[in-house]
């Protein structure tokens, strides 16, 4: 019975904490090479590879690694004036960043098995502003049967496709506009996540999350119950020996309590929103590698569609002399599609299109909070060179039209270096 590569990859990702960096790489290669193999044969091969590497490669507990990243940015427009027209600002993590040389996000990771039943992982992010934050810090089960897995702590939500991936695994320097506008760049939960992997030939995964909801588009509320709920479903499979795919649907429901932002026309004024925010995401990925061998050439096509609705109350000039509160309702959407082609070993080229639709906003008597409908968009082209599996240099050009009727030509040069072993990346 043919086995989907998704199930093999899912298996070794669940168990990769037991493996060294070399073992993980060997397991991934094995999974890609065994698209037509049986489950037993594939798992046996992975276990044998693991055992063989364990004899020659000493392991450490816990595993410690670092991701070093730096960027040079040449921006035509002043980045301080950057704003996605028609969308509520989502905080400091969005936008093209500062001009010139910048230390990108340095990632420090620590992970290990707690015991035969739990696995723990901590990822610290060091921003260019010298601020250190816990990007992820969670424990997850390793011994539950029947495809179940529970994760608790701080983790990237299963919302969409790109959200769960750390920035150093992205194919472009920056996050798509839809992520920046809808969830503030990347959405993380402080809470609990439950996943179930179906025992079927076709890859099928279901998941649910409950968290405090303190991150955009929500805010932290002084309640015992969770402030955000997420549901997601993923499915995928193989098409012959050279093609595989994955598709997903996800939903986020969160609440905001006096979520504030600077007025678009008068930055000295502060506005606020209190109410409910819902985000729907459709995602799809298709990968091609000749006979399952991605080492020489391969192609990946991915895209996501976002839709966000918000209902509640909006306050103009929050805390000021002209404060006015009335009902607020909005429905906005966005999407991106990108293709990345490895045309020879270590070299890749990519193209990405982003577009948003600000939709219609109803603010009652608060006419100052309504803006003319807009369609911010951006086109990105990138070329990267991986000297090895531990180092990469990337060149990227953006034609950014997030500002209304303005084009911002952006050039980025980025390096990424990996120190030490880290767990396998998701599909």
Structure description:
A 16-stranded antiparallel beta barrel has the order 1-3-4-5-6-7-8-9-10-11-12-13-14-15-16-17. The chain is mostly beta strands and 427 residues long. It is built from four helices and 17 strands. The chain has helices at 5-15, 21-33, 39-56, 177-183, and strands at residues 63-75, 100-103, 106-115, 118-126, 132-141, 148-156, 188-197, 203-211, 228-239, 243-262, 270-288, 298-316, 324-344, 347-362, 377-388, 391-401, 408-419. Helices cover 11% and strands 51% of the residues. The chain folds into two domains: 1-59; 78-86 and 151-410, no CATH class.
Our estimate of the beta-strand percent is over 45%
Helix proportion range:
10-25%
Low-confidence stretches: 16-44, 46-59
Order of helices and strands: HHHEEEEEEHEEEEEEEEEEE
- Summing up helix and strand content along with how strands pair, one would put the structural category as mainly beta
Give the overall shape: globular
| Average predicted confidence as pLDDT | 86
Number of domains: 2
Highlighted features:
427 residues, 2 domains, 11% helix, 51% strand
